[in-house]
UniProtKB/TrEMBL annotation, chains A, B:
Keyword field: Aminoacyl-tRNA synthetase, ATP-binding, Cytoplasm, Ligase, Nucleotide-binding, Protein biosynthesis
Domain of life: Bacteria
Gene name as annotated: proS
Major localization class: cytoplasm
Domain Aminoacyl-transfer RNA synthetases class-II family profile stretches: 33-466
Source species of the chain: Carboxydocella sporoproducens DSM 16521
Record protein name field: Proline--tRNA ligase
Subunit structure as annotated in this protein's UniProt entry: Homodimer.
Amino acid sequence: MRASQLLAPTLRETPAEAEVISHQLLLRAGFIRKAAAGVYTYLPLAQRVLHKIMQIVREEMNRAGGQEITMPIIQPAELWLESGRWHVYGDELFRLKDRHGREFALGPTHEEIITDLVRNEVHSYKQLPLLLYQIANKYRDERRPRFGLMRGREFIMKDLYSFDKDEVGMQISYQKMFDAYTRIFTRLGLKFRPVEADAGAIGGSSTHEFMVLADAGEATIVYCDTCTYAANVEKAESRLIAREKQEAQPLEKIATPEQKTIDEVAAFLGIAPEQTIKTLIYHTEKGLVAAVLRGDRQVNEIKLQNLVDTLQLHLASDEEVVEKIGVAPGSIGPVGLKGKVWQVIADPEVVQQNNLVCGANEDGYHLKNVNYDRDYAVDLVADIRMVEAGEHCPRCEEGKLLTAKGIEVGQVFQLGTKYSKALNAVFLDENGKQKEMVMGCYGIGITRTMAAAIEQNHDENGIIWPLAIAPYHVVVIPVSEKDQQQREAAEKIYSQLTQLGIETVIDDRVERAGVKFKDADLIGYPYRLTVGKTLAEGKVELKERRTGNTRVLDVEEAAQVIANLVKEELARY
Amino acid sequence: MRASQLLAPTLRETPAEAEVISHQLLLRAGFIRKAAAGVYTYLPLAQRVLHKIMQIVREEMNRAGGQEITMPIIQPAELWLESGRWHVYGDELFRLKDRHGREFALGPTHEEIITDLVRNEVHSYKQLPLLLYQIANKYRDERRPRFGLMRGREFIMKDLYSFDKDEVGMQISYQKMFDAYTRIFTRLGLKFRPVEADAGAIGGSSTHEFMVLADAGEATIVYCDTCTYAANVEKAESRLIAREKQEAQPLEKIATPEQKTIDEVAAFLGIAPEQTIKTLIYHTEKGLVAAVLRGDRQVNEIKLQNLVDTLQLHLASDEEVVEKIGVAPGSIGPVGLKGKVWQVIADPEVVQQNNLVCGANEDGYHLKNVNYDRDYAVDLVADIRMVEAGEHCPRCEEGKLLTAKGIEVGQVFQLGTKYSKALNAVFLDENGKQKEMVMGCYGIGITRTMAAAIEQNHDENGIIWPLAIAPYHVVVIPVSEKDQQQREAAEKIYSQLTQLGIETVIDDRVERAGVKFKDADLIGYPYRLTVGKTLAEGKVELKERRTGNTRVLDVEEAAQVIANLVKEELARY
């Protein structure tokens, strides 16, 4: 490809609208342009990257037994009414009517459509397992679309749905997909980690998210420094180490005027926050829930909500707390609380510690030497806290937990019979008995993966594409357009590389060399070949984008050397 | 692929909803399923065919200098308001609102989006020509979607847009696309013909439609039996051969009671319909138009409307004719008509003939021996008729015109500056002068091409895929599933073919051989290899779907022979 013809409009300035690196660089390097909020046109360079990602995904889906199909983007409302999601989905669902007034949704996901298809076409256990997937646009009407391709309103996803005759079959399909995802992200050249994630209300015993590691990632990952344990922070657990019991001291009530927060109280009393008890009051549709944990810990609201199994769960307002418990949130403590709220739940860590300080349920006072069982009772002791770095691994003996930031690019999910039950997708088993199919769903955000690759692979000069998904492998730059020998040598190498199957751009624009170098770094070609003054001695210079390492090559051998380098690296996966 | 795992749900019965062959066979052979009216899911076999069509299209677009991009499906209304099409487009445009009430269209075409992109990114003649294309879903809310993939509401199109600095450049881009389309349909293995088509109100001096020839096609093509001239029937012209003048006879008025139609009048008078004059009255927003032509000819309303340049043109109602001309349509004739209607337009063929019969503009009477000029005058003599088979080619000396039926699968179109003017897409030329870009647009219906391929290639047993776009090249059928030797031999050949790069299905279902043969014909695999009783003598049978020819092969050589056949045929294009 000739840079003079390539539509890759690079920008010197960072557009003000772009908050995250991938969004900034995709705009600056001429990969995307905005058509509307959260809606983008993918320009030729992005198109090439997306094609490569899709091709790797497709190959691995096929290898795992997936069959590719394409389902409609415009989905009839009837199916969504049947599954019950038409009314539940809310404003995130783009809806439209046709000329006859019939309602449609722009698919954010395709469980309804695929389940409808399979219930009509599959009737026997002999046709199972069945793994169907598509790579297509998805729609989600985000309230505030931002971060470029990280959270768009129109985006490309791969979604596969597995149909099995029983739970065991589903586990096998799940493992196939888990392995396929591992191969995909490895082949893409990304540093990633599959982490255990919360399955939420849908149930299903297991779900994993595939996280591309990146400092600016919006998700926190907890992982073991010794074994393979990894989970997202909402799901992460730790192993509690039994503490030595101290002798219980007599309960005391002490005045703590104006001391509201844990830090204020600890400072006032000259103790560590971990010697205090934090009690938070949550509103749910079933009643108030008190979460009791150590003063220095954070509540994991997802764990808490799963435990109490409510539709809503959020911190109660000061007014509601005062009205229902008779004291302001800053003075709440677990002593005498049970029975006043719907449920009191304490974290295992806090109940094993002695002689703690907590709110006295009376404004301006705290209690000292509070001990579980002697001084307060709860409805349930269960893990309700956010795990922190440095805690013990829940799976192995030796490991300590570490944290990292990541971007979720894929998810594998055990759906069970949620949709097959709702849409009556049944089959006859070996004994002629009718059963519901057991389903799984498995997504990869294709456009999001492109953005995540940039979040993980960039520097102050631009993108650093992994070779497997780079839009082109090599850019050839003649330093002086006016120097006929340089131009001819560059053209010759360009033509040789192209013939050798190496995807090459020649920067034949009438621009200063500095502009070409800057664009090459910004766009992130893995290799840059410079044809400059040293050509007089028969030499050209190869620079690797990632390392910055340069290497002088004989002009006659350059194309072959580069082709070997590229092919060797591509063959690594 | 194993048939036991392939989701290809064949049907024995033809679904009642399917009127055309391609729709019937796509449903029966398990290629598509309906999700809503005009909205389909493409099952694995269709997906493979579509991939192959798209890949050939992509290769030829790239070869012609096209750069692939992807534009949004949801397009902001603002751009459509700017181009003026938001209000013009009518009910065929799917419209929706986002959560903030902003309006969007589901793109039926992408002139607005692409012109907006290019006006923002391209400013100099150095960046032109620019050829950008995408392969993506398109939306058209047809009033009555039918004929399956021939006229859907959601369908896949390739659309390329060319931007040039002047008319000459556009002609070059147009020719590149014309040539690319010719290569594409040749490579797809289809019988097709590019035909001249009417450019309509958009103007542009030239446009061609690419027609796949098929008896059930909805378009009529007129072509020369000698030279390359071909046009769709709306655009087709013919060369008029001068007739020998007869001596003009005196005008007579004759009673023709109850004789209304041309055929009735001709029979009543004992003359041929070609000796009569047909006069049709059209309603337009500018006034009535009288079309005068030989009694045996048909008006070409597109030619007529282009001549009078009106927004509307349709036959006037009887009431309007009586009210404005004072006589019923059956008695209208050109004598004395000029001045009573806005325009009288006569076809060149009718004005060169003498002594014709026409309505007397008086109920129950006709005129005999009517001669142009002596007896009647018109506002314009111009070609307003449908050309018919047997007429003379307008381009060559010798040729006679023939007609055929076709399906439009592609169009190349010179847009000129329609959109660049409306959206102000300008650039600076070599002299620093601002100019509007000159555009072209070029579409191929991908899903429609799949359907058209079936309309052209089928028999009473099912589809006959051209090899280049067949979902698989070969099906291997062990006749008896219970015969272990047959099963093993079939498996071995299947595995050999797959290793040789031949796309193969093995029909390993527990079904009678008859069912497998029927499905093989219905699905349309180009080659069927049967492993049956002759295996005992080391023989298997190869059958070619298209010709029905069979060939006995040694079991040991079968895979290699088939692979050679397939590769030879694929290499032909």
